[in-house]
Structures are given as C-alpha cells and as structure tokens.
Amino acid sequence: MASTLENIFSRSDSTKAYSLLSPSLLLLIFVFAFPIFFLIAYSFWTQDYVTVDTTLTLENYKTVINKSAYHTLIKRSLVISSLTTLVTVLLAYPMAYYVAFVVKDRKLLWLIALTIPFWTSYLLRVFAWKLILGYNGVINGSLYNLGIIENPLSFLLYNPFAVFVTLAHAWSAFAILPIYVSLEKIDRSLLEAASDLGDSAFKRFWRITFPLSFPGVLAAALIIFIPTTGDYITPKLVGGSEGIMVANLIQIMFGKANNWPLGSSLAIVTMTIVTVLVICFVLISRWLISRIK
Amino acid sequence: MKIYSSYSLSDRFLTVYAILFLSFLYIPVLFLPLFSFSESQYMQFPITDWTFERYVTMWKKTKLHDALFASIKVGIFASVISTILGILVARAMTRYLFPFKKSVLGFIMLPMVFPEIIMGVGLLIFAIFAGMQLSLVTVTAGHILICLPFSVVILISRFEGFDKSLEEASLDLGENAWQTFYRITFPIVGSGILASLLLTFTISFDEFLIAFFLSGEDPTLPIYIYGQLRHVKNIPYMLALGSIILIVSFITISFSEWIRGRGMTTKKIYGIFK
After folding, report:
1. Which listed CATH number (1.10.3720.10, 1.10.10.10, 1.10.238.10, 2.60.120.10) goes with A60-292?
2. Which residue of A9, A207, B49, B75 is surrounded by the most CB atoms within 10 Å?
3. Does any domain span residue B44?
4. What is the CATH number for B182?
5. Residue B1 lies inside a defined structural domain of this protein
6. CB within 8 Å: B98 and A18
7. What pLDDT, in 10s, does the model give residues B130-164?
8. ipTM for the complex?
9. Cis peptide before A117 (omega within 30 of 0)
10. What is the C-alpha to C-alpha distance for residues B274 and B269, in angstroms, rounded to an integer?
11. Which chain B residue's Cα is nearest to A254?
C-alpha cells in the first residue's frame, strides 16, 4: 500500500483538509484564542476607574495571593467541584453499566432519556432546586405536613451543600456517556473467559471491566470537574453568601467592583490551578490503574 | 453466554437503581411546571390553590416578546453557522489524513469543556478592546463557539459511516462536486445535519452565561428570565414561561437525538467520548 502511505501526508490532502478547517480555525482564533490572550494580558495590567494602565505588573497576582478571602473562594470551588465529580461519577457508573450490559434492545432510548435533561435550560433546572430546598419549598412543606418538623429547616438552601446537590443533579447525566462508551467497547469474550477460568463476578469486574472502562471514568471526571469549578449560576441561585464560588467573584470584578485586571488574574489563577490538578489527577489515576492491571 | 442471559439478582438490583436514577433526574425538574400552576405568590408547598392565569397574562409583558425574538434570532444564526462550520470540520476529519489532525480536533472541541465564565469574561474584554458594541452579534459569536464542538461530534459520527465510493461513483459518472454533494452526500448525512441544527439551536436558546456578559442592551430570553427571577412577584410568570421552554426543549432534543441515532449503533453515536 505504498500509494496510501504517500497519500497520508500528501500535500493536496493537507491543503484540502486545512481549507475545510480554515473558517472554524479562524473563528476559534478570533473568538477563543484572542479573548484568552487578552484575558492574560489584562491580568498583568491595572485599572484606575475607567482608564487602563498597560504597564506590565504582577500587582493583581500579589493581591490574589495575599487575600485570604479569595483563597477561601477558590478552595471552596475546588472542594465543591471535586465532591460533585466524585459523586456524579459514582452515581453514573452503575447507570452506564446497566445500559451497557443489562439493557438489550432499547439502549438508544435509555441514553436519550438519560441525557435530555442535560441539554435543557440549565438556569431553569437550577432554579427548580430553589423550589425544592426553599424555606416554603417542597422538602420543608412535606416534612411539616407529615408532622416531622414544626418550623421550616433553614439550612437546606443557601449553603455549599445546596450547591453540591444542585450541581450533582445537573451533571450526573452527562457523566454517563463517556462511561457508557468505554463499557460498550469491552470485548465480551474477555468477560466470559474470566468466568470460565473461575473468577468470581466481583473479581471479574475489578480485574477486567473496571480497568477497561477507566478511560471513560477519567473522561467523565474531567468533563464534570473543569466546568463545575467555574460554575456561576448554581452558587449564585442556591449558594447564598456561604456558598458563592470563584466564578461569582470574577463576575463581581467585571461588574460592580469594576476591576477587570483583578478579575482577569483571578480567572487565570483559577484556570492554572484547574489545569495543574487535572494533569496530576490524570497521571496518578493512570499509574493506579496500571497497578490493578 | 450464561453470564448475560440469566436475569440475575444483580441485574434486578441494577434495574431498580436505573429507575431511581431516572426519577432523581426528572422529578426535580417537574416541580417547575407544578409550581407554575400555583395560585400562591411564594412558591409554597404543598400547593393548595391552582390557576392557569400565569400562562395567559405573561404574554402581556412586551419585553418578553423582545427577549424571545432575540433568542430565536441568535439561535438561528448560531445553529446554522455552527452546523455549516461543523460540516466542513467533520468532512476534513473523516476524509483526510493531515499533520496535527488530533491537535486541531482537540482545539476545536476545547470550548466544550472550558469553563464558560472564562470564555465569557475573555470575550467581553476582547469585544471592548476591539471597539465592538455589545449586542446580539457578540452573543451569536460566543454561541457559535460553544455550539461548534457539538455540531462536530454529531457530524463526525454521521460522516464516518459514509461510503466514500458512492461519491466517487457519482463523480465518475460525470456529476460535478456540487451536484454530488447535493444528490449523494446531503441525503445521507442529512439527518446528522438536522440533528446538529436542532441541538445547537437549543443550546444557544438556553445559554445563559456567555449572553450574560455579551448581550449589552438587548437581553436574550435566559437573561430576561434571570432578571425577572429577582422580583418575587414575577417568579410565578417565569415558572410558566420556563415550563413552556422546558417542554419545547425537551421535544426538540428528543427529536434531534432520535433522528441522529437512527441506523447507528450507540457506540458510534457517542464514540467521541472515548
């Protein structure tokens, strides 16, 4: 197949491919790369009311590093989103397993039913939790009517736990897809072989199914951890003052506080921490999984 | 096949789990339409008096009309443009081998997992710096960015099963490239294109955070709803509006997912998540 080998990097193929890609790449450069570049640039500038001073300075980063209130918010964001990630992946795994191994004919129907809520209005789904956890909400109303409580529980809403519950609900559906795909790809004959050779169901799961599905678990963890760390609506609507997260702080810097450079450096710091954590997480979990195998 | 054919205890346990999981997913959302029929102002549960009034009176809010129209406009532009771009990307990805293929795909898919707050403030800074007026145009640009990865996912999975020899046959028989696209390629990948249009329209229509930073004077519907939710007296109307949006989104997405899934294995449809 010398001709195909030649074709692989043949100039005409590359030219054709890149001309098809060029509109999208141009869009990404203008609407994604440039904005991130300017965000980074802004984080090294300073602002005095409306005038922006473009002398490069580390002043904003010093502020972020020295202000413990900011640390609290960043830490809280990371803790909430880690917890959300852990719980959603744990909840989604058996669900994905069920569709991959137990459901026979209506797999597509199941997957559609499981993922539809994820696509529908995030704002409204988050608001629904206000109706449930609120002072006069579903939980308090029900408990009161059952005679379990006399006064509404005020600790349900406006705290980090409410943020966690709402995020876990909003994202668990999305975690199913990557896990499902990795489970579906597992060669069924491997599982039969393990059983024939006398492995118990648990051992078979732990030694074959789980390691082979691990890339899906990893993908699920990342597509939940990264966006939830920067989530804005959920902490804003159900978090209250104890539950606000770093995205809310960034928004304040770009809104009321009108300190765009500081807001930018907060965004960059958050993004950097998330990236470093993600890399560490991927490396550690790959190492762990190689030990199981 | 003894492991799978018997409906074992663990299978039964998983079935119960699956039903509980679906309930957990859907029940919280159902409270929105439920509360929209409540007579009370204060989102009180249990609901004692029922009314249909919100669904009638909410249409008198003229700002709602403007916001709805704005969202539809943005949604149409964002979905059409991201789908066209998605077609080109999917074709390049499924047809050619070229240098940096994986990195380019990764770059295009990145906005799917990127924190929206960072894209939002970045776009705001860039728009102001470039001297652009914040408007529905800037919102649309942001929405195309977040819709494109989803178009690409849908269309790559459709294009992958596409038999190249059909197009070659058409070209050999003397059709030009455009006719071949119109008569061979489009009918085969058409369901993917329709699914992409519907899904990206819904994503754009429901998107909040990017629009929150970029919409300027003209709010999109989610921004309008968000503003109204601050005033207790407006909340019941927003619940009614929200219920309609949820139902319409639900139907659109179900339809989109259904046509996109026809004739394909689930492994392939969701193959990008590997």
Report:
1. 1.10.3720.10
2. B75
3. no
4. 1.10.3720.10
5. no
6. yes
7. 999 999 999 999 999 999 999 999 999 888 867 77
8. 0.88
9. no
10. 11
11. B121
Cross-strand partners of A47: A52
Q: Would you say A214 and A133 are in contact if contact means Cβ atoms under 8 Å apart?
A: no
Distance in Å from the first CA to the final CA of chain A: 36
Helix (H) or strand (E) holding A287: helix A260-292
Q: Does B24 touch chain A (CB under 8 A)?
A: yes
| The token pair that represents A147 in the structure block | 């005679």
**Digits of tens for pLDDT over chain A (293 positions)?**
445 544 555 568 889 999 999 999 999 999 999 999 999 999 999 887 777 788 888 989 999 999 999 999 999 999 999 999 999 999 999 999 999 999 988 888 898 889 888 888 899 999 999 999 988 889 998 898 888 888 888 889 999 999 999 999 999 888 999 999 999 988 888 888 888 888 888 888 888 899 899 999 999 999 999 999 999 999 999 999 999 999 999 999 999 898 999 999 999 999 999 999 999 999 998 888 888 76
Buried b (16+ CB within 10 A) or exposed e, B206-235: bbbbbbbbbbbebbbbbbbbbebbeeeebb
HSE-CB at B19 with a 13 A cutoff on CA atoms is: 5
**Is B192 contained in some domain?**
yes
> Across the interface, which of A94, A141, A181 has its CB nearest the CB of B273?
A181
Angle ∠(A283,A288,A289) on CA atoms, nearest 5: 100
Tell me the C-alpha distance between A274 and A229, whole Å.
8
- What is the pTM for the complete model shown? 0.89
- Coil/strand/helix, residue B266: helix
Residues contacting residue B9 through CB under 8 Å, at least 6 positions apart = none
Point out the residue among A108, A120, A215 whose CB comes nearest to the CB of B253. Answer: A120
Whether residues B45 and A215 touch (CB distance < 8 A) is answered with no
Whether B245 and A124 lie within 8 Å, measured CB to CB: yes
Backbone φ, ψ for residue B38 (5° rounding): -85, 135
Cα of first residue to Cα of last residue in chain B, in angstroms, is 26
Please name the member of B21, B85, B113 whose beta carbon is closest to the beta carbon of A226: B113
The phi and psi torsions of A153 (rounded to 5 degrees) equal: -80, 125
Within a domain: B10:
no
Report how many domains make up chain B: 1
- Residues on chain B touching A260 (C-beta within 8 angstroms): 125
Q: Note whether B31 contacts A138, CB cutoff 8 Å.
A: yes
Sketch the domain layout of chain A as residue ranges: 1-43, 60-292
* Candidate from B115, B246, B253 with C-beta closest to A124: B246
Give A46's strand partners.
Answer: A53
